[in-house]
């Protein structure tokens, strides 16, 4: 499985520090606590460095002069210093724990919010496990970095500087001996950082891939079991975890190498200082107390030096996590309404090339009851020149719509290549076409799940790009072939499609329309939780709830992608009857595969080779269009069941 990598062009060249600086806006609100905690840690660490000085005083003073009271006083000082150091480190932890948990929660919320606003095309490109791992593992790494390495790189740095000054002040010769390994240690750290960065990035991406496999096999457990694919899934998982294990071992080897250098060289230097110091004490050039203090200081600096390796490793992992976090956060969210119109909606063509010959095209010019189903939408408008005109641009109109998936292979033809279609106000249009002809794609353009590549789509004459997302989604409701339900109650799932103030009455009406009354018989009625993705319901039940969600807001425009595909014959007939009522009040585009669904609509459009090849009634197209007749052939006998 390919690993989802950075797509931002500047990411690879950015240093770890510059990358980590991007966290500042999130850290800023808690900066005082963080700085306060760092200050407390510096004081605690430097208190530790006072201990060798007390030792020096103890050895050269009370011990040399055999003064028991002085020794007891020295021991008390040491005890108090140790206690103070421990308390201050405890205080530091208390200071950062709560605010940093808050930073992590805020960053996670921001990521989630941003993910909701990213276009569908982004989600098509990214494996869900990669997004999941960014919201979990990566953010945890960042919190750990802010809590620990960020503070301790500073604290240990200050402690090292203070410690070195103390050592040089005590005896500069010994000081230089101990400082000897500084250059090779720094060089090792630089080389380590580069190598570890690459390994850390790889490991975190591989965790994302692993998460994807786990997520897919949990969600697709029925397919996995049904096709006996558990072994191959387990194999795929095993291979990925083996690869991840390899990367983690590489990280461990790098850590071991830097640890080896960082621990060994200073230890050798301390050993050398001990020898040189002992000789100088023997020669009377140095007091025993100074040597004890010097060596104690050198040993007190062991932890700050030894910890550099894993602090750098954790910082590098945090830099990688930041990079991965911002790869998502930097992705452009979907644009809302456009400022300027692409074209004046008033200039929409008056004559519709597909309007056909009026009543002869099978569309009722007037209803049998004498009223117009188009209601107010068909009222004549007054043109600028004073003459009345019919609202020819009303309803849903596709004008020269071209569409190419952003991630389609270069050079591949567009899925839609000049679609012209007009669905009149109040009319329902079935969309028929061969598998893969682009029906779902065309329906996805109406709620702007994808943006048209060229051409435009208008709702009652207004380019959909000029409507805000909120306006657009208030006008257009959709039900997809794969009905996704959320882990929430039936009522919450259905009312998701309704205005905020919608209540029980709307819910019951929608359930009745979608023939989803089974919901009332569930254990807690419409308050029943339908579980992860509604898996506890049958396919047909889920489809009916999705349909209820689409109609609950009484949308002006309804887009249905094969809404009856999972229903049995009897339920389908019942839903069809109910849908007819809904369709009578809306302008609808319905993807249909079967004549029974096609017959719900006033007219049918045939999508072929990226264009609308024919428009007419089901019977007209059956007679006049060979491709349509062929597409419907399989189900032609089902026609009488649903005949209107
Ligand atoms: N996210 C995507 N990225 C790239 N290509 C895509 C994407 N989704 C669909 N396609 C391609 O677009 C074409 C049209 O797909 P679409 O799902 O719209 O067809 P359809 O007519 O609805 O098919 P069906 O009747 O089988 O549901 C197909 O060739 C498909 O492979």
Automatic annotation (TrEMBL):
Domain ABC transporter per the UniProt entry, residue ranges? 396-634
How does it sit in the bilayer? Answer: Multi-pass membrane protein
One annotated GO molecular function = ATP hydrolysis activity
Where mainly located?
A: membrane
Give the keywords, sorted. ATP-binding, Cell membrane, Membrane, Nucleotide-binding, Transmembrane, Transmembrane helix, Transport
Q: Which residues form the ABC transmembrane type-1 domain?
A: 35-317
- Name the residue ranges with Low complexity bias: 354-371
Q: Where is the composition biased (Basic and acidic residues)?
A: 375-393
Among Gene3D superfamilies, the record links this protein to: ABC transporter type 1, transmembrane domain, P-loop containing nucleotide triphosphate hydrolases
Q: What are the GO cellular component annotations? A: plasma membrane
Name the InterPro entries on file: AAA+_ATPase, ABC1_TM_dom, ABC1_TM_sf, ABC_transporter-like_ATP-bd, ABC_transporter-like_CS, P-loop_NTPase, Type_1_exporter
Q: Which PROSITE patterns match?
A: ABC_TM1F, ABC_TRANSPORTER_1, ABC_TRANSPORTER_2
Q: Where are the transmembrane segments?
A: 32-55, 75-91, 144-166, 172-192, 254-280
Where is this gene product found? Cell membrane
Q: Where is this region: Disordered?
A: 331-393
The family database entries (Pfam families) matched by this protein are listed as: ABC_membrane (PF00664), ABC_tran (PF00005)
The reply on keyword Acyltransferase is: no
Annotated PANTHER family? ATP-BINDING CASSETTE SUB-FAMILY B MEMBER 10, MITOCHONDRIAL, ATP-DEPENDENT PERMEASE MDL1, MITOCHONDRIAL
Protein name (database record): ABC transporter
Upper lineage is: Bacteria, Bacillati, Actinomycetota, Actinomycetes, Kitasatosporales
């Amino acid at each position: 499985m390919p690993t989802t990598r950075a797509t931002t062009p500047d990411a690879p060249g950015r240093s770890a520090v510059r990358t980590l600086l991007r966290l500042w806006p999130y850290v800023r609100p808690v900066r005082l606590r963080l700085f306060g905690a760092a200050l407390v840690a510096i004081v605690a660490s430097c208190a530790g460095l006072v201990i060798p000085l007390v030792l020096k005083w103890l050895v050269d003073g009370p011990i040399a002069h055999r003064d028991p009271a002085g020794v007891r006083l020295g021991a008390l000082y040491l005890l108090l210093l140790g206690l103070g150091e421990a308390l201050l480190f405890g205080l530091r932890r208390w200071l950062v724990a709560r605010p940093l948990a808050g930073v992590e929660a805020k960053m996670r919320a921001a990521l989630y919010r941003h993910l909701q606003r990213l276009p569908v095309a982004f989600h098509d490109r990214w494996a869900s496990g990669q997004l999941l791992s960014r919201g979990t593992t990566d953010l945890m790494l960042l919190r750990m970095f802010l809590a620990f390495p960020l503070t301790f790189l500073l604290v240990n740095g200050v402690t090292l500087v203070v410690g070195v000054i103390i050592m040089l002040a005590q005896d500069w010769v010994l000081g230089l001996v101990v400082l000897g390994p500084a250059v090779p240690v720094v060089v090792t750290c630089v080389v380590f950082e580069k190598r570890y960065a690459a390994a850390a990035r790889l490991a975190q991406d591989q965790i994302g891939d692993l998460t994807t496999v786990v997520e897919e096999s949990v969600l697709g457990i029925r397919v996995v079991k049904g096709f006996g694919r558990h072994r191959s899934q387990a194999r795929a998982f095993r291979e990925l975890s083996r690869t991840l294990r390899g990367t983690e071992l590489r990280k461990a080897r790098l850590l071991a190498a830097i640890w080896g250098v960082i621990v060994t060289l200073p230890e050798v230097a301390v050993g050398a200082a001990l020898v040189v110091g002992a000789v100088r004490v023997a020669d009377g050039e140095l007091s025993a107390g100074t040597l004890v203090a010097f060596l104690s200081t050198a040993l007190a600096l062991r932890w700050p030096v030894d910890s550099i390796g894993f602090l750098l490793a954790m910082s590098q992992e945090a830099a990688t996590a930041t990079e991965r976090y911002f790869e998502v956060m930097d992705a452009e969210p979907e644009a809302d309404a456009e400022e300027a119109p692409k074209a004046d909606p008033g200039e929409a063509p008056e004559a519709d090339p597909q309007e056909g010959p009026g009543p002869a095209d099978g569309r009722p010019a007037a209803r049998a009851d004498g009223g117009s189903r188009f209601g107010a939408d068909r009222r004549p408008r007054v043109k600028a020149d004073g003459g009345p005109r019919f609202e020819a641009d009303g309803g849903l109109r596709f004008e020269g719509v071209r569409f190419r998936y952003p991630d389609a292979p270069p050079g591949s033809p567009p899925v839609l290549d000049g679609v012209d279609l007009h669905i009149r106000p109040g009319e329902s249009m079935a969309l028929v076409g061969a598998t893969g002809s682009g029906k779902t794609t065309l329906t996805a353009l109406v709620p702007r799940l994808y943006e048209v590549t060229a051409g435009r789509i208008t709702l009652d004459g207004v380019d959909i790009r000029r409507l805000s997302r909120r306006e657009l989604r208030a006008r257009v409701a959709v039900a997809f072939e794969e009905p996704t339900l959320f882990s929430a109650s039936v009522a919450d799932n259905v009312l998701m499609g309704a205005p905020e103030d919608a209540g029980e009455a709307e819910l019951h009406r929608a359930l009745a329309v979608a023939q989803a009354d089974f919901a009332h018989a569930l254990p807690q009625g419409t308050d029943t939780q339908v579980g992860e993705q509604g898996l506890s319901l049958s396919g047909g039940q889920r489809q009916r709830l999705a349909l209820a969600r689409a109609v609950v807001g009484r949308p002006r425009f309804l887009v249905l992608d094969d809404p009856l595909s999972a229903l049995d014959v009897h339920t389908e007939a019942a839903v069809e009857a109910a849908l007819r009522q809904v369709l009578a009040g809306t302008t609808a585009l319905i993807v249909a595969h079967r004549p029974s669904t096609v017959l719900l609509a006033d007219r049918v459009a045939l999508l072929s080779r990226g264009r609308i090849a024919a428009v007419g009634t089901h019977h007209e197209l059956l007679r006049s269009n060979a491709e349509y007749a062929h597409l419907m052939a399989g189900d032609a006998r089902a026609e009488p069941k649903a005949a209107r």
